[in-house]
Design goal:
This protein has 302 residues and is an alpha/beta fold. The protein has a domain of 181 residues: Rossmann fold (3-Layer(aba) Sandwich). The strands form four sheets. The chain has a six-stranded parallel beta sheet, sandwiched between helices. Strands 6-9 form a two-stranded parallel ribbon. Helix 1 links the parallel strand 1 and strand 2. The radius of gyration is 19 Å and the shape is globular.
Amino acid sequence: MPSAFITGITGQDGSYLQELLTGKGYEVHGWPSVDCDITQPDVLRVALQQSQPDEIYHLAAQTHVGESAQAEARTMAVNLQGTINLLETAQRESPSAKIFFASSSEIFGRPEEVPQTENTPLNPVNPYGESKARATEAVRVVRAAGCFAVNGILYNHESPRRGANFVTQKICQAAAAIARGEQSELKLGDTAAARDWSDARDVVRGMWLALQADVPDDYIFASGQTHTVQDVIEIAFETAQLDWREHLKIDESLFRATEPRQLIGDPTKARTVLDWQSQTSFRELIAEMTREATGSQATRSQ
């Protein structure tokens, strides 16, 4: 029975990954995000000694881009130093384990090319992006030294398990709450902001595929298409049978000072090498999130 260790196992991605691996017959070990202090090397050492994993999936991080500006030191400590701690500890305690690191499209910031590939220069514009960019480079360093270490460059990915502090879930939950009569309006910032959104379940499948490849490499997991926050609004409110115009209020205080632009991922490499691609459309995803927020049972093709 293969074994896997997941940091951030109770997060959106970690919970889906646990289910995927368990279904494939893995023995899965992991830390909840709140208990996973990857800034403490001794804690990591004990965890890897106890689990002796064949595969390590490093998902734990300070994940909210907006909050990273208010907690820059903590973001660097967790996202960068925590990743370095894990890489160094894994090399000592589980040298044969394959490692997957959850990088981010935010490493490209305001990119020089559109769409982005695995070779696009890193150009982060916020503390979160900077922490992930530097951690991505650390993974490349240990890979060059012989470690099976993979960077999965993840573009925005959502699901009914997405935290309420992310804009997609905020919108879907608001539409559901308004439909139930529990609130009357939705306050948002820049609704023209565009992202390349995928389904989190598709992305975690890519994580597993990346560690089954013959050689370690970097892979972009993205849909290759962008949609705006406004698109999310319209689909969510349509699903809830509401007119968004009657409830949306723009709050300029919610605009980001350093908004990344034109973050569109080219998933050609993942499709060609790993036979991976998104299976759920953007409309299906947002509609499902909204239905789940209303408490109804949503169906989804597996």
